[in-house]
Structure to design on (307 residues):
């Protein structure tokens, strides 16, 4: 389980992120001229019944608002989304991010067939990711890592699994990248060395780790390129990041799913390896030689001639 670490650098509890309430997020996306009356009816449902809206179909939301389905779609587009499914994805992530772990568990109260439900949810999340993720965003992250003197990956709690896999494979591809796993002291020391020649990738979901958001802000202040991988960015994280990559992370229990997030970092490494294939070839051949010297792997590769 990932706890919400809201302590500041001196151990004091930090203030909530200004502008990060559910209502402030939605109202902050309103177009300059506002919405028409029927669009306002849809917005009112989102604000007053966030739980029902988070789990409602387009037709169900239209009924709640007393409008037709086309109005729901137009309202979502006016708020900056492709349609209701895209708006609902972030709406639901933000609704869940306002709940405690016991409350999230209560929302996912199924007791039968939970394992199958978990697998189906992950399959649905990856399918959703495939439809909506901007491939250019993946390439921009890869290009930033390739061009950086050093890339720092910040991922805490269970999210560290995604960050460690990212850094491990990117290093094998021939790039200097470090996942911070030694706590806030190590994180502070590494951030203190960052410059405008570096990059930082922040990976955090659900309620977000305060230290991750702080690290992103500090790296941005030092001129580094900052990328965030999350299901619902806070204003502070959005402000710090050059780019936010939104990833579905809802699970079926009290903890977020890491499947889609891990798929994204694997895609970034695949792009990274394609940027300079010769560099990556040399790097993985050198690593392979060291694996052999250390006797790391149970199975050894066959010679290339097949003998």
């Amino acid at each position: 389980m990932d706890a919400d670490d809201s302590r500041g650098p001196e151990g004091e509890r930090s203030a909530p992120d200004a502008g990060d309430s559910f209502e402030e997020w939605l109202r902050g996306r309103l177009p300059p001229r506002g919405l028409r009356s029927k669009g306002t009816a849809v917005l009112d449902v989102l604000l007053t019944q966030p739980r029902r809206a988070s789990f409602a179909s387009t037709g169900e939301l239209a009924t709640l608002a007393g409008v037709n389905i086309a109005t729901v779609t137009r309202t979502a587009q006016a708020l900056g989304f492709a349609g209701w499914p895209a708006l609902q994805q972030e709406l639901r992530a933000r609704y869940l991010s306002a709940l405690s772990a016991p409350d999230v568990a209560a929302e996912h109260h199924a007791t039968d067939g939970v394992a199958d439900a978990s697998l189906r949810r992950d399959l649905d999340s990856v399918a959703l990711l495939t439809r909506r993720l901007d491939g250019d965003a993946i390439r921009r992250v890869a290009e930033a890592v390739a061009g950086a003197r050093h890339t720092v990956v910040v991922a805490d709690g269970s999210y560290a699994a995604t960050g460690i896999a990212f850094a491990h494979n990117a290093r094998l591809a021939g790039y200097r990248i470090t996942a911070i796993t030694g706590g806030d002291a190590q994180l502070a020391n590494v951030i203190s060395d960052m410059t405008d020649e570096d990059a930082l990738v922040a990976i955090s979901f659900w309620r977000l780790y305060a230290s991750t958001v702080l690290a992103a802000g500090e790296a941005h202040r030092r001129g580094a390129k900052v990328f965030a991988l999350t299901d619902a960015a806070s204003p502070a994280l959005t402000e710090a990041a050059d780019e936010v990559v939104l990833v579905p992370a809802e699970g079926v229990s009290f903890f977020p799913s890491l499947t889609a997030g891990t798929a994204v970092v694997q895609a970034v490494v695949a792009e990274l390896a394609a940027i300079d294939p010769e560099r990556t070839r040399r790097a993985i051949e050198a690593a392979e030689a060291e694996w052999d010297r250390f006797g790391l792997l149970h199975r050894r590769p066959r010679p290339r001639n097949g003998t």
